[in-house]
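quick one, 130 residues, struct below
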Amino acid sequence: MFSSMRRRLKHEQGGFTLIELLVVIIIIGILLAIAVPSYLSFSGRANEKAAIANVRAVVPSIESYFSDKSTYAGMTLAYLKGTYDQSINTTGYAISGVSATSYCISNTQSGKIAKKTGPSGAIAIGTTAC
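---
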């Protein structure tokens, strides 16, 4: 291989051979085959964590509402945002199953859904919103 390169340099031939170009393309393909699945799994985990964090951020407002009203009935995201925490971004949230003693809140981030059935349930990743 070095001898062909020396010959090429002596004769002032420029460019790459077809084999050299194919080797580079194969190496790039191998690197992409390793990198793309890694990126996709990282992206999915990041969306799950974001959805969980969003649900966790709203829970204190929900509990403040219960503390003030002694019930979860009548609770809405707009009321929670206006009264307890103006930083709540209501996009992607869903509240349902609201009764005097329980609620279900969920948040969706790029197809990943985190939900909590409260007040005592844990935050979990699910396939459906509340």
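DSSP finds three helices and four strands in the chain.
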